Amino acid sequence: xxxxxxxxxxxxxxxxxxxxxxxxxxxxxxxxxxxxxxxxxxxxxxxxxxxxxxxxxxxxxxxxxxxxxxxxxxxxxxxxxxxxxxxxxxxxxxxxxxxxxxxxxxxxxxxxxxxxxxxxxxxxxxxxxxxxxxxxxxxxxxxxxxxxxxxxxxxxxxxxxxxxxxxxxxxxxxxxxxxxxxxxxxxxxxxxxxxxxxxxxxxxxxxxxxxxxxxxxxxxxxxxxxxxxxxxxxxxxxxx
Length: 240
Description:
six-stranded mixed sheet, alpha/beta
């Protein structure tokens, strides 16, 4: 089976958490897109849900599938968010933001009663940091912001290249909120909580891709089956 198949299997398992009448947050990225696709099929079969997308890309996909949509302003509390991750460890700590939607993803996740993360087994790590940490920053004072981030990271014992993300046109990548993203190749982050606290001191930093204490369940699919990182309600064991 392929990585694409595993992403779909994780998305299928996440559907078990969806109940009729729920208010859902829809994540962003290739794995989350599998869930949105499957949810669309359930909606066509009669499932009643209303959803808040975490990006304009997800909004477009969901709208095309006729999934009912709303906003957090109209519906500020959600039952469940299903999203992907760039990395997930055994404590359900995440790095997110590879798709550039980390700010909206975190806002929607925190507004949810439960957050289910779906991923293929390549995203499972013992320690966060192999994937460069995305930081959403305001364009104003970018050099000063980057310099302060580097200093605080060094104080935390982390060193690595900080790169301004660029789009396919070579220009700086712009998030749905009009901001830029710095990708920080810090390597292994042995104390994500301390780094997260330090980054909060940077005034030009809007949000970091560290998602700590946010995820409730992780559904990881791979060649050995489907693993659920949680003791909550539903455990899946499946041979592939």
